[in-house]
Structures are given as structure tokens and as C-alpha cells.
Amino acid sequence: MPLELTAARPDPALLDLPWSVPLEDWPADRLAALPRGISRHTVRFVRLSHRVLAIKEIKVDLARREYAMLRNLERMDLPCVEPFGVVSGRQTPEGMPLDACLITRHLQYSLPYRALYSQTLRPDTSQRLIDALAVLLVRLHLAGFWWGDVSLSNTLFRRDAGAFAAYLVDAETGELRPSLSTGQREHDLEIARVNIAGELMDLEAGGFLEEVADPIEVSERIVDRYRELWFALTESERFETGDRWRVEERIRRLNDLGFDLDELAMSTDLDGTTIQIQPKVVDAGHHSRRLLRLTGLDVEENQARRLLNDLDSYRAATDRQNEAEELVAHDWLVSVYEPTVRAVPREFAGKLEPAEVFHEVLEHRWYMSERARTDVPIRLAVRDYIDQVLPAKPDEQSVLGVDTVEMPVVAMFDD
Amino acid sequence: MATVTFDEATRQYPGNPIPSVDKLNIDIADGEFLVLVGPSGCGKSTSLRMLAGLEEVNGGRILIGDRDVTHLSPKDRDVAMVFQNYALYPHMTVADNMGFALKIGGVAKDEIRKRVEEASKILDLDPYLERKPKALSGGQRQRVAMGRAIVRSPQVFLMDEPLSNLDAKLRVQTRTQIASLQRRLGVTTVYVTHDQVEAMTMGDRVAVLKDGLLQQVDSPRRMYDHPNNVFVAGFIGSPAMNLLDLPVKDGGVQFGDALMPISREDLKDLGSHVTVGVRPEDLDLTETGQGLAVTVDVVEELGADAYIYGQAKAHLVDADLDESEAQAKPFIARVDGRRPPEKGQTVYLRPREGHLHMFNAESGERMGD
Lengths: 415, 369
Prior knowledge:
The complex is a heterodimer.
Chain A: E1 4-6, E2 43-48, E3 51-58, H1 60-75, E4 82-88, E5 100-105, E6 110-111, H2 113-117, H3 125-142, E7 145-146, E8 155-160, E9 163-168, E10 175-176, H4 182-205, H5 215-234, E11 237-240, H6 245-256, E12 259-268, E13 274-284, H7 286-295, H8 301-317, H9 325-342, H10 354-372, H11 378-388
Antiparallel strand pairs in A: 1-4, 2-3, 3-5, 4-5, 6-8, 7-10, 8-9, 11-13, 12-13
Helix pairs in contact in A: 3-5, 4-5, 7-8, 8-10, 9-10, 10-11
Chain B: E1 4-11, E2 21-28, E3 33-37, H1 44-52, E4 59-64, E5 67-68, E6 79-81, H2 94-104, H3 109-122, H4 138-150, E7 156-160, H5 168-185, E8 188-193, H6 196-202, E9 205-210, E10 213-218, H7 220-225, H8 230-235, E11 242-249, E12 252-255, E13 258-261, H9 264-269, E14 273-278, E15 283-285, E16 292-301, E17 305-312, E18 315-316, H10 323-328, E19 331-336, E20 346-351, E21 357-360, E22 366-367
Parallel strand pairs in B: 3-8, 3-9, 6-7, 7-8
Antiparallel strand pairs in B: 1-2, 1-4, 4-5, 9-10, 11-12, 11-14, 11-18, 12-13, 14-21, 15-20, 16-17, 16-20, 17-19, 21-22
Helix pairs in contact in B: 2-3, 2-4
């Protein structure tokens, strides 16, 4: 059977990889990192034409299905790993057929949750991870994606101005529907809760989790955070006709949560004394879209919020409130943002994403100013940050732990 | 433990002109292993999810025991989806891996310990309870994952294609293990598969669905010997039953050169044509040149038996294929593996008495006994 490669933008260098060898036995010199832990399927990372790819060995129908699913999610602008292709028709030189491979692109600066726990952490890391996962789950559910295997292991996290942004990694069990029933959403939520508790208990048993945190309590946070957010985004509201400002107020509340309203259904009762509003479609990324429009910077939601705040302060400090926002944004980009992120020496470039560096410099400046009891200019803050803080940070551009460290249950039988 | 009842249960998706599951009626006995089987899109997974509370029920009811669960949330139904999440945690002991979901559910420590110990005896895991999963073999790990569902002691186990990502060999081993475990536990189980061999080897009873409609629910033996219609006849059995469109004349059907007699009573209902089914193992080679002429294309030798695949001088039918596709299907017969015919040879086959299945050529429904 000939080797078959399905990819949107195929890279001929892919054909040089040792497809006739079971993934498990790929030579170390081909791998971008040595495998850590074990996952349900064999997963390896390779470096190819200056990028890192994750390769998962899996049955061909499942590989094709997951590839198509990831492509759909990508098209719908949902945060997930980028599908790269499927290689099928593999066989050993002896003619033994091998499972297909699903290839995804490694998400730069993303972190598996276990990698986060091997660093010194702020005590509320679990909570921030779960908050990010709740946002991801709500976004997926709003789009009609029924995940089926929600867990920290099946998610990658990117730093987002001190918080995290979550990305879906594993779509194997997922289904896309026009919309989800309450039962389906609750099912995902229950799976999430049990998996998160299990994952945290496992970290605790391995001595990675500070003992004060109760895994069960922490895992319940996913349910609370999800419900709060779902309610805020989808609840319908009824008020007197005179209180029309509440429409504006609702839109502002959605924006504060990072969502934009795409469609709002509004209806009055028979005698027209009350109005009912119901948000129908909301899109995440309110701040990041605004920043993209103003500056061309494509960053995570909280980073965008942070950058926009700094832009506002710049506008106030330079007394340009009456000028076109685009013009001020351009000047801010050239005179504040770019000099700051360019100041990072090349050897430290792999530590943090530029937008996260900018966020950290702003934080650092705040502490410096507090200590000095006066405003510290950003160029001094950058210099001090690069001297004092950045060198101690780990490289996070390509943290390539296998995303799950759970044991494969399905393996060879002993009896 | 409990019975499960689908009572006219219906699921219709918004915007779909026809229901995905249409007035499903099945009574599942306490402790029974029922398999839902059918081609993709037949409604089997939807039916299971209706029972689990994951699909809304638009009409009819679903009962677990005497309790109407039609509108209960998944959590409140006391059912367990087995194999949904089968990861084991490496730093936790086998006992903790089995019992952690109970801990989350707020079950007392002593009770957890008791249930884990009980389950571990059934699963032959008691010597390993304090070990880490790493120390276990693959089969033992699989049983720990099953144990996680067992300790919850649900009223019903639900399994949706649990073996679909295993390779063929592992699939056979695991299916035996699941079936024997279910019998030891005696918990009512509903199992979904697209694989009729899996269905026939595992289920106490098998329910065949097509296009959202229940075709037949019966024991595997009864289903095999007595398919209710042409679809079930063609779907159950591997290799599949041969289905032919044959003329009716002179008190029987014309099977090639041979006239197969039919009882007077059955003859009453027949039109001029009838769909006749005969399984590959219910055919004999005739020495006399009497019967249906088949030109052999392929001989598949299996040792004791051999299967021949050939072109029959008859009109083949298939419930799901159009006429030309059906005609292109081979006619299959099992013959003695020691003296199989050769490729290219024309052989004459005659059905064994009492092994012809007859179906109305129009409706596809079974006729006679």
C-alpha cells in the first residue's frame, strides 16, 4: 500500500520521516525532545523545516476524523492545536501494516499542566488553570462542540498576562452539533470535574501539589466558573421599557468578560411595558480583536486587555484624547511597545512571548515605582527586568512534554 | 440492578424531517446484556444516549426499573458509561485509581474501601491494590479501568463502541472479558456496536436498528435462524446470507434447476416472485447438476471448510443496494475443505431442506415460519 499524506499545506520534508518504523521506535536523533511519560496513544515530537510537530499514532479512521474535526474547530476560530496532516498506508519493510499518524503543529509557548507544576508556582495556579479551562469549555459549547473527554491533560495553556489561555489538544472523542442539550453540557462538565480531581489527586500523590489545596474542592471550581460564565453569556433578562440603558449595560458586561455580542434577540410583552433581551451569539476575543484592529498585534485576551490599558494611559499622559485612536495606537506601538519587546536579548527570546514580556515589564515597573515612590520610566523598568528577572525564567517556547502522563489502559494482555 | 424500558422513545433533531430514533420499544430484563447493533446512522448510539440522558427524548418514555427517567439529568439516573475515560493515574495506587470517583462523590472512606475490595476480587486484582499502575500488565490495567465503573455499583452499565480503537486481536480478547465480567456481576448492560459479530457473540439479546427503526430484537440464535426481514437476514451473519429474487411456480420456488417445494399454507401468501435467503453453510453441492449453477471466482480455504465466492445464474438482491450493485455481489457457499471446487469451475448448489428463508418481495417481511 502506498504512503498517503493528507495535508492542507503539505511539506515534502514530511516524506523523509521514518514512516515505516513504529512511532515508538523512532530514533532519538529524529525527535525534538525525548518522550516524557506515557499517553493513551504513542505521541512524539519532531522538528521539521524549523517547526515542531506533534505526531500521534492512531487508527486511520480516528486520525482522519480528528484531523477533520480540528480543521472545523480552526475554521470556527476556536482555540485548538493546529492540524497539520494525516499519514496513512504505513507499513514496515516486511509489509506489516502500521497505524496512521495524526500530525499537529506544536503550539508555541504553550505549557502542559504538568510542566507548570514542576515549576515554582503561585499558590493559585490550579485555580487559574481551571478558570482558563472553563472559558474554553464555554466557548466550545457555545459553538456546539461536545468534547467528551475534558481534562487538564487534553488542554494546553498559554500565559496570558498573569492568567492562562486554554487550547484544546485532543478532539478524538468530540462531536460538532448545531447546539448542545443541557444534558450534553452537564455530561462534559461532570467528566471535567472528575478528571480534574483525578489529575490533581495524582499530582498530590506524586508530591507536586502543596498539601493545603484539596483536589476535590479545586475541581468543583470548574463547575462554578463554567455556570457563572454560561449564565452571564446566555441568560435572558426582562425589564421595564423605561430601563433601556440595561441593553447597553448587558453589552458592556459581556465585553468585560471578553466577549462580543453578535446577535441579541429583543422582544416586548403584549402591552409593551417590559422588554426581554436574550444574547444569541457571542464571540470571545473582544479585547484581542480591538487590539488587532488598532495595532496589528495578535495576542491573548488578557494580554490585549493589559496592552489596551497601557495604550489608554499613554493617550492620557500625552494628552491626545481628542486624536484618532488609530494614530495614537500607532505611535504607542512604535515608541512604547516595540522598543520594550526588542530590548530582550536574542538568547532570552525563547523564554516568553513578546506580549507576555511586555505584561511582565509593566508589572515590574509597578513594583519598582512603588518601591521608589515615584513613576519609573518604562525603559528603566525594561533594563532592570532583563537584568534581574528574565534570566531566571525557564525557556517556554517549546515545552514538549507529552500532554498526558496517564498510563495506557489499553495495551497487551497478560491473559 | 434494574430493568430498562424504552417505551415508544423518540428522538427527532430540529430541522430533520424524520426521527433519528422512531418509537423505540424494548424491554430489557434485570441483569440482561442487550446489544444495539446496526449500520452507521441507524440510531443505536442515539438510543443509548437517550437512556444516558445525553439526548433529549421528544416522545415516549424511558424507565429504569419503575422509575421514569425520561427527563432526569444524566447524574441522577444511576447509570455508568464504561470506558469513557480510561486513563489511569501513575502516582496513585490501584485502589485509589479504582475508588477516586467515589471519593469525589463524597462516599465514606470505609465504604470506598469495601467496594474497592469487592470489585478487586471479581477482577482478580486484590493482590495488587497497593501497587502503582506501572507495575501492572496491560490486561490488569484494563481491569482497573473497568473496576472504576464497577465500584460505583450503578443500576445499568452503558457501553458505546468501547472496543473501536483496539486492534483485531485485542478486540476479541476484550470482548470475551467484558461479556464474562458482565455475567459475573449480573448488572443490566446496554452495549452499542456496529459490528454484528461482536453483537452476536456478546449479547443475551440483540436489537437490530436501521434508519431509526427497530428491526428485530431477539437472542442471537433466534436472530440468526429466524430473521424478521430481508435487512436483518443480510446484516446478521458472516459471510452474509445469499439473497435471491426467485419466481414462484408449481407449488414451490425455482432454485436454479431445482424446484424447492413450499407448504400449501405458505404458498397462499406468495406473489409471483419471492425473496429467498440461504446461508452459505446451508448449501450442498449436487452431483447431478441439479440446483443453482454458480461459476467459482474465488476459493477461500480455511482448513476444515472452504468458502466459494462466485457468480450465480440468478437475480441477487440486497436491502441496501441498487439492482446492479446487488447483482455484482458474489454468491457464497461453504463446502468441504478437503475437496473444494476449483476456480473457474461451475458447480451446482442446492439448499438443505428447512433452511430456506422466504421474504415478501415487496415489503421484505419474513413469510411463514
